[in-house]
Design brief:
Layout (H helix, E strand, L loop, with lengths): L1 H28 L9 H4 L11 H13 L2 H9 L4 H28 L6 H8 L2 H32 L4 H21 L4 H20 L5 H4 L10 H17 L8 H28 L5 H4 L14 H8 L8 H8 L11 H24 L5 E5 L6 E5 L5 H14 L11 H17 L5 H38 L7 H17 L11 H4 L1 H24 L6 H23 L12 H28 L28
Antiparallel strand pairs: 1-2
Helix pairs in contact: 1-5, 1-12, 1-16, 3-12, 3-16, 3-19, 4-16, 4-18, 5-15, 5-16, 5-22, 6-7, 6-22, 7-11, 7-19, 7-20, 7-22, 7-24, 8-9, 8-12, 9-12, 9-19, 11-19, 11-20, 12-16, 12-18, 12-19, 14-23, 16-18, 18-19, 19-20, 22-23, 22-24, 23-24
């Protein structure tokens, strides 16, 4: 019954929050104005700045912010028990994450689509612009490395996902051309594309799993299979191309198609969880501990690490980059900002709730295994009535989260696999065969990660161009040169060997602990920009100031613990000195930016920042299309 109540209650709570707290922010705090000029119309170039209907931009925004964060984070955090993870996801997403995303979007909309890093230079102090951009450069480099490796590993572990993920790209381009060039409606073609994607999931699962290792006879490099390395290079090459293409040609239609696919999969998961809970096949309370007592000895403390382990799904600094980097350049009316900024974050919180339920209650519904590459799945239900059901559920969870493995022994495939397998069990209650269910959930994970990966590449290109313009490196202001550098940096980190034994491809994974803290520090700094924006306009700031303090203290605390704890601290470990130096750089930039904020705090109240120079009076007319919106 707990599974049923939590699944249904969480989504009802999010709907209420959207229409109450979200509306209050929109109307009373940010005073959204449907008549205000927006960057997509002020600076329209049909490459990055394109007025877009809110349903389409919602699809892009949601699929870009979600990634694997709301899947991997909760899947790790339930090590401490499902209750702390659930509370942080529910309250964090409503009062911190959605406020962060919405606020960053509004600030960017009112500053010609500039990123929060650019805006910080006028809202706080000129030096903070470079400080913020440097933090973004470091964070996005790790994002590209990590997400490239994550998708590569998913492709290698689940070759049935390859066809459905890649088939979306050419379909999206065809739809983009139809919509933009022929003024076709986007909804009809995208629904046809959704049917094709689901057909390809079936084909991939039963007939055409694509294993890149069998296509290219390349020796294994180090401890990493050549499939992971090959896929990483293929993915980064794709991102280099996708990030310089006009947003209407690939990004918008692909994300719109993916949003349908992802929302459908989430809907199936939610219904499956409700059915499983109502019929007694899944029992959250009996399957996993609300607060775990058997914690691995080498695990970090729940306080403060819960707040950086679960980022996406509760609050994530990366989201401010999507809000101010791509979404603000496409929103066609300020009235759409709540729907896009606040609403998408709540839906991501819903995804994180489903992940928690799947990893705890879902895995207790059955056990299955896969023997050999491409072999069929075998499944034996363990959930039966009475005490045996309770014992089976607990045994399944404890097997997945075996404390004897230690914190370091819980690998990426286990984290992702707990959700994929638990989610497939939920789908099984709807009559979906296990093998097909696993393929549907694996494609869900890969699609989220893929949309985030090329969006992150585009964002990194913006950051490099902004930095190059600031320090007068003219060649890097060119979008192609900036993109090449962005992909090269991500690839270097992804291929950096953690050790001679592990070989190429392991370097990106050892930076994951740093990414969690750096990402959340970024959220705190974005909140600082939002607070200064409101303070300069004599607006209430407590609702943003408290989250700002939380998101500055918690990740800094976690970073310092990683650096200096006596047993595993990076400072004391010769093999982790590079992590220590990276952390020192991030912490120094953060402290410097906070000092800059403190210095101007007292004189900022009610004093508007320097305004941007006026735009030319006349702008060239550009034809509009139904998908892009505008005045048809």
């Amino acid at each position: 019954m707990a599974t049923l109540l939590i699944a249904a209650g969480a989504f009802v709570g999010y709907i209420i929050a959207y229409h109450t707290y979200g509306k209050w922010l929109s109307k009373k705090i940010f005073n959204v104005d449907g008549d205000a000029e927006v960057p997509s119309k002020q600076l329209r170039d049909d490459v990055d700045f394109v007025p877009t209907k809110k349903e389409v931009i919602f699809g892009h925004h949601f699929t870009s912010i979600a990634g694997t964060g709301p899947i991997v984070g909760p899947a790790i955090a339930v090590f401490w028990g499902w209750l702390p993870a659930l509370l942080w996801v529910l309250f964090g997403s409503i009062f911190i994450g959605a406020v962060h995303d919405f606020g960053a979007l509004i600030v960017s909309l009112r500053n010609r689509g500039q990123t929060v890093g650019e805006v910080a230079g006028r809202l706080i102090a000129p030096r903070t612009r470079i400080l913020f951009l440097l933090i973004l450069l470091l964070a996005l480099t790790v994002v590209l490395a990590i997400f490239g490796l994550v998708i590569a590993i998913i492709f290698a572990l689940y070759p049935e996902t390859v066809l459905p993920v890649w088939i979306t790209m050419p379909i999206a381009i065809v739809i983009g051309l139809m919509v933009y060039k022929q003024n076709a409606s986007l909804l009809g073609p995208s629904l046809i594309a959704l049917a094709i994607v689901y057909a390809s999931i079936y084909i991939g699962a039963y007939y055409l799993p694509i294993n890149i290792s069998t296509l290219f006879d390349i020796p294994v490099l180090g401890a990493f299979p050549n499939a992971v390395i090959l896929w990483t290079f293929v993915l980064l090459a794709y991102c280099a191309i996708a990030s310089v293409m006009p947003v209407w040609l690939l990004l918008q239609p692909r994300d719109f198609i993916n949003s349908h696919q992802l929302v459908l999969a989430l809907g199936l998961l939610l219904i499956g969880a409700i059915v499983a809970g109502a019929t007694g096949q899944a029992d959250l309370v009996e399957s996993a501990p609300a607060i775990a007592s058997n914690i691995p000895a080498d695990a970090p403390p729940i306080w403060p690490f819960l707040f950086i382990t679960i980022a996406c799904g509760a609050c994530s600094g990366f989201h401010c980059l999507v809000s101010s980097g791509t979404s603000s350049k496409q929103v066609e009316s300020e009235l759409d900002a709540q729907y896009v900024g606040y609403g998408a974050m709540l839906l991501e919180g819903g995804l994180a709730v489903i992940v928690i339920l799947a990893c705890c209650a879902g895995v207790g519904m059955g056990e299955f295994s896969r023997i050999g590459e491409g072999a069929a799945y075998t499944y034996q239900p363990t959930m039966v009535e009475g005490t045996d059901a309770q014992l089976a559920g607990v045994a399944a969870w404890e097997t997945r989260y075996d404390a004897s493995k230690g914190w370091a022994g819980f690998k990426l495939k286990d984290k992702v696999g707990a959700f994929i397998h638990g989610g497939a069990n939920f789908l099984g209650t709807l009559g979906i065969p296990l093998k097909l269910g696993i393929s549907i959930i694996a494609v869900l994970v890969a699609s989220f990660a893929a949309t985030t990966l090329d969006t992150a590449t585009r964002l990194q290109r913006y950051v490099i161009q902004e930095l190059a313009a600031t320090v007068h490196i003219k060649p890097l202001t060119n979008k192609y040169a900036a993109t090449a550098l962005a992909v090269a940096l991500g690839g270097m980190v992804a291929m950096m060997p953690a050790s001679a034994a592990q070989g190429p491809g392991s370097g990106g994974l050892i930076l994951w602990p740093l990414f969690g803290a750096t990402n959340q520090l970024l959220a705190g700094l974005a909140f600082m920009v939002i607070v200064f924006y409101l303070r300069r306009r004599n607006k209430p700031i407590a609702f943003a100031l408290i989250p700002m303090i939380i998101m500055l203290i918690m990740p800094a605390w976690a970073m310092l613990w990683n650096m200096f704890n006596s047993e595993t601290g990076w400072y004391y470990n010769p093999d982790k000195q590079h992590l220590f130096l990276f952390a020192v750089a991030v912490m120094a930039l953060q402290v410097w930016m906070i000092i800059e904020g403190v210095l101007v705090w007292t004189k900022s109240k009610g004093l508007l920042e320097e305004q941007l120079p006026a735009l030319p009076v006349s702008q060239p007319a550009v034809a509009t299309s139904p998908a892009a919106g505008g005045s048809n």
